Task: structure prediction
Amino acid sequence: MKIGIIGAGNIGASLVGKLAAAGHQVKVANSKGPETLRELADATGAQAVHKQDAVKDVDAIILSIPFLSYADHLASLFADVPADVTVIDTSNYYPFRDGTLDGLDNGTPESVWVSQQIGRPVIKAWNAVLAATLAERGKPAGAAGRIALPVAGDDAKAKAVAMQLVDDTGFDALDAGSLADSWRQQPGTPAYCTELTLDELNSALAAADKKRAPENREALITQFMARYDELTHDDTIEMNRAGTA
Ligand SMILES: NC(=O)c1ccc[n+]([C@@H]2O[C@H](COP(=O)([O-])OP(=O)(O)OC[C@H]3O[C@@H](n4cnc5c(N)ncnc54)[C@H](OP(=O)(O)O)[C@@H]3O)[C@@H](O)[C@H]2O)c1
Result:
């Protein structure tokens, strides 16, 4: 598959490496320009491009950028992208980092907001996996204890594409319903960055509490900030599980 990835940070760069290794033709862009992505391109075989080129002649586009970046008029990038190109959003909203954004604090699911910003439907995937989990804990399909990730969206074909790509990165993909349902995989929910298997993830999505999720998110951020220097990967997962149970 031809894939354009916008964002080459913790999540985007991992996706570049994993999807290129899975045999996909990957283009990658950031805000600073392709010359700053040479090392990543050389290491993975991906092509470093300007973001305008990352969305051209591809089957799928992955957006892996902070919420604040949607203020950069990203909608114009999509004007000529055909409707059958799958667009996947990995983002999460953290007011302490992103500021308070109109529309998000009234309960609009984050990826619905992203979809409104860019003027087209998106599939939400890879948002509920810690960067370290994505980088280090993927397993081949069928392996015991394989971690599952939720994939939400409205278009069945686009969701199937996203689910296949999630599988290609080393994780079981679980159909988590519509984009309107995608608050169930947002920060502060039991499905968010808790490293669950398929069955466990199914239960976690069902147990999500829309009112509590932002409260849990803020409480967890306070706890993470207080212990930032000493936390291991496993500590983080344990805190996420305990803080959303
Ligand atoms: N970190 C995690 O554990 C994690 C887990 C799941 C989901 N997420 C979510 O996934 C998204 C990306 O997270 P991250 O941790 O990978 O972020 P990050 O490390 O800060 O990287 C962000 C990337 O986005 C690029 N970018 C920013 N604005 C852009 C623009 N206007 N046009 C093109 N590229 C732009 C940056 O490029 P420059 O450096 O050139 O500006 C950078 O490559 C966020 O929404 C985050 O909440 C993060």
Summary: The domain at 66-178 is CATH 3.40.50.720 (Rossmann fold).
